[in-house]
Amino acid sequence: MAELDSQPAASLPPSPPSAKEEASINITFTHHGTPHTFDFPPSSTITDLSTRIHTDLSIPPTTQKFIITPKLGVLKPPFTTPSLALSTLHSKKIVLLAPTPAELSSIAPPSRSSTPALKPAQPTRHRDWRKAQDEATYTFHTLLPLPYLPNSSRSLHYLERLRADPGIVSSMRKHRFSVGVLTEMNPAEHTTHESRTLGLNRNRGEVIELRLRTDAYDGYRDYKVIRDTLCHELAHNVYGEHDRDFWELTREIEREVREGDWRSGGRAVGEEVFYDPQEREGSGGHVDGGGWSGGEFVLGGGGVGVQLNRREAMAKAAEERMRKQRGAGGGGGGASA
To answer: How many angstroms separate the CA atoms of 158 and 230, rounded?
Structure first.
């Protein structure tokens, strides 16, 4: 019999990757200061991202909250638009706000033996339940210091103090302001040679950012200056442009906050300089130097800085009063709008 020639079979070249494999989407988000990158098919949605986080990081959807910038704001499951395509989020900044599994497990329920017997709660006669309900609704629902900056616990204290400020609480209840996230601003990301942004309101109250820290990161700005900035940003919940209606609402909120602080027995007048927003309007805008833009509280435009000590602020207020008195005595006109 003739022997069959045994020729080795020619190896086939590897098949090129399919178009579906090449079109995968990379989504990067930050959780507790740590970036995470997941790959998804091109047709994936925000719901798929939530499910993947639950599977890979053991963070359930019930504790997930996403801050997506610019423009989208705060999203959390169940999403208003669960079919939102991940391809539209590829170039956006995504921050996941959620406790880690270790943090959740550390919150253990108290043992039955250590829990004293409690009597049923009795409604108090003088409790204003409507007011308590309103204050729980019209408030800052999430406080978010920046965890990658030093002394984030002190930033959280500042944010907590602002949320509990009696004047802020009263004004937010009156105007029915509900803000999703109150967070601090990284000065390096909002400083140019011409201006410094002091505050930012995204989507009329979804997120408000405040410049808590000094430019050198070696301390914190004066509390009352930060609170004045917050009054300005709260007015942006109603008006986007800096028109007459906006400034009237800003002055109204500032007055309400000042009066609320005075009634609570705080030290709004005393060791600290009492700041009158009417003087600010007539002083040529030295607080912001005329540098307002698009819902942002900006310090710049060639104006005088706001960081004055007590003596400087008192002297400036006295000079302004004298200027107004001279103008009134000479029959001059008022300050231009």
So the answer is: 12
